[in-house]
Specification:
Blueprint: H1 8-20, H2 26-37, H3 43-52, H4 68-80, H5 90-93
Amino acid sequence: MCKSKITAADRRALRRIIEKNHRVSYLQLSSLWSDAVGRHILRSTCHREAHKMGFSTYKAKEKPLLTPLQKQNRLVWAKQHKNWTPLNNDMQYNGVIRGVY
């Protein structure tokens, strides 16, 4: 087995790059990593090292488009509630469930 040419500093640089650019492809990631460490690094090396650090890939699930009926219902709801303001109509908002973001 060969000694790894990837150093601990290189791995830290990769982690920082992934955390800052978490939506880029491995090809783009390897380019960013190569620029950061000053030498060429293959896409497969980038993928392997990221996987060792616990990063994984996934493909986002495709969501179906809204149907014409759903669009119409949303428009009706929006028109009914267009004058709601949190300051003037606290009573209106008491029945609304708010999420924490």
